[in-house]
Amino acid sequence: MLNFFNQRFFFVSLHPMSIDQAIALFHDYIAHERRMAAGTVDNYLSDLRDFAAYLQPLEIGSLDEITSREVRQWQMHHLDRGEAAGTVKRRLSSLSSFFRFLRRRGLIEADVMAKVSAPRQPKRLPVFFKEGELEHLYDEGIFPTDFLGRRDALMLRLLYETGIRRSELAGLTEASADLSALTLKVLGKRNKERVIPIEPELARNISDYLALKHQETGDSQWLFVNGKGKPITPQEVYRVVKKYMPALSNADRISPHVFRHSFATHILNEGGNIQAIKELLGHADLATTEVYTHVTREHLKEVYRHAHPRNKRQ
Fold it and tell me: Into how many domains does the chain fold?
């Protein structure tokens, strides 16, 4: 029996392939075969539908009519509208994945993206909180003493001490924390699990919070809940960060992801191993992690400029 994807593939292979049909096939592939995160799937589909809409006035309806020229025109269309180079680069990445998929399936022959160059963008180093700023997370009086205040304090400390993403934080369950083994099991991108060590004080914070949580909101499998005992969302994690961190830090950007940058940067500044940081962050490629070595170099330059006696004389 043909599965859903093969049934659709068999049907469209008997007829001229339209762009909309191809997008539907690609959707099946990334959502069901690759099992990509829902947000990633939405981004791909948004970019592909935008490209398809751009082609409509050009009266291009089938795949074999698309060339590099149309892709470059679409790229310039977004750049001329003032869209950031990074956003356009992401759009082109979506198209590259789409056309690569179609070539592998034998649905097109030409390498449409071969003559398309992504726009250059200035290389930005990750923003991170200073160590002194994050030490305030452990001060008395920063957080309210009620349940939500205790919850917020633990959320921010976990973000800093584990480097997990906000979606990963929202997805934690009580079973994720092994307090006797001092570990936290995290479900990352593409359902890949990783285990992160935690320090004893953080384990005690989790234990104290769980006791209060059960008392205030009842039993729930989710680690972090709202006042009604419902699991929090990634958006709520963002709101908690924005609630407290502007008063504690003067960083150029405030978001949960800045905690992730801070986690990696501070470990590197203390001599941590880049390969170990890669595993802790759940990166698939070491090159993704190596950006933090640039941050560390800039940190060292700053320390040198302010501390070396020869520099201080000038």
Answer: 2
